Amino acid sequence: MKIIQGGITAPKGYLASGIHCGIKYKNKDLALIYSKVPAIACGLFTQNKLQAAPLKITKAHLKNNKAQAVVINSGNANCCTGIGGIKDAQAMSLAAAKGLGLRLSEVLVASTGIIGKRLPLLKIKNKIGLLVNRLSLRAGLAAAQAIMTTDTRPKQISVELLIGKTKVKIGGIAKGAGMIHPQMATMLGFITSDAAISKANLKKALKEAADNSFNLITVEGDTSTNDMVLILANGLAGNKSMSAQELRLFQKALNFVCLALAKMIIQDAEGATKFVEVCVEQAGNIAQAKRIAFKVANSPLVKTAIYGENPNWGRIAASVGMADKGVEQRLLSIHLGKIRVLAKGTALKTNQQGLKKVFKDNQIQIKIALGLGKYAAKVFTCDLSNEYVRINAEY
After folding, report:
1. 345: helix, strand or coil
2. What are the φ/ψ torsions at residue 54 (nearest 5 degrees)?
3. What is the dihedral of CA 98, 102, 107, 111, to 10 degrees?
């Protein structure tokens, strides 16, 4: 497998576009992803019980696991908008379907932005023709830009791998900077592939990839109402049905794409100055490892200490104890970077200047060993800054 150029349009048969239609005051706010032939499609969606209108439409369109296009807007979430919001999401999908000459069910729809306002549907409909006309191999970046909200930069990646003797490609774009937490978070992810793969295998591959990427990131522990990850596979690479070994190769590549996009989201989190990796090892089970990792990653005290470059590891230890009653103090060990500060529940004399240097870095690793078993989990997060408060106070 190797990283290649092209993003969402790198796989065969995909075009994209991104334009400004007037939902936002400026910048692109309407995107389209199009496969020249029908594709196998599946998706994963937020676990927030309050789900936006476009999720309901997209779920309905995915019942046969086929699609040929995705239309996305930013700047307006089309959530908490009642029956009118459902009709708006359907009308947005229908406008794109007519522009592309497709059936309504072949077009998936997504939205992100402010909750509680109706879509400016006329602005969208008036620009669908332009959106379709702008479809091209070179406009993957424009599509990545058009789905951004508080993101400061677009997020895209593509890879190529060999399935037998056939070159297969996977491309992806994503958005997300705040309200990030597993299942799924304020994020949208769109992945394309030219692989020939069954819908059952594609569903399984997407779930595994998401569980090892998008479901391992957190900014502040909140999930949104609009989040989804969609994947399309149109088969134009021409590979034969995949063997078990080839499916593992495809899975590895998809995992890589999703994890790369997930890390980009954390690196671009609202107001973030530091990328933080929380590793929990030697847990009794995987659930315990994840529970502790997320407790530490979401702790405002831990996150503000990291922002202030204050190596107050006591906050980390306290979060571990709060997360799980089964943790035994006499077994607990903590590393900050390469420096061990706690060994079997006992504080060690450490070089304070060395610790401060660890916290001045823009990438920080927190490693927690429980001494209870063989299971581990890794979660990615960021610090909590003054800028995060400003952004979310004004958004």
Report:
1. coil
2. -60, -30
3. -20
List the one residue out of 202, 221, 178 whose CA is nearest residue 395: 178
Distances in Å between the Cα of 391 and the Cα atoms of 151, 236, 306, 383, 395 are 11, 43, 19, 14, 6
Quickly list H helices, 117-167. Answer: 121-133, 140-146
CB-CB contact of 276 with 306 (8 Å): yes
Distance CA(78)–CA(166), nearest Å, equals 41
CATH homologous superfamily for the domain 2-267: L-amino peptidase D-ALA esterase/amidase (3.60.70.12)
Whether residue 391 is predicted with pLDDT greater than 90 in this model: the reply is no
The dihedrals phi and psi of 90, each to the nearest 5 degrees, come to -65, -40
pLDDT at 306 exceeding the cut of 60: yes
Whether 243 shows a pLDDT value over 80: the answer reads yes
pLDDT of the residue at 184: 37
Rounded to whole angstroms, the Cα distance separating 297 from 217 reads 9
Residue 347 Cα distances to 68, 341, 351, angstroms: 58, 6, 12
End-to-end CA distance of the chain: 40
* Among 389, 385, 387, 151, CA closest to 274: 385
pLDDT confidence bin for 227, thresholds 50/70/90: confident
Residue 268 pLDDT greater than 90, yes or no: no
Query: Residue 245 gets which letter from DSSP?
Result: H
Q: What six digits make up the tokens of 357?
A: 């240097």
Instruction: Determine the pLDDT at residue 217.
Output: 86
Average pLDDT rounded to a whole number, residues 22-26: 91
From 9, 186, 192, 218, active-site residue: 186
Known catalytic membership, residue 186: yes
pLDDT digits (tens, 9 = 90+) for 77-112: 999 999 999 999 999 999 999 999 999 999 999 999
CATH 3.10.20.340 domain locations along the chain? 275-394
* Amino acid at the residue 5: Q
What residue ranges of the chain are covered by domains with CATH 3.60.70.12? 2-267
Helix (H) / strand (E) containing 140: helix 140-146
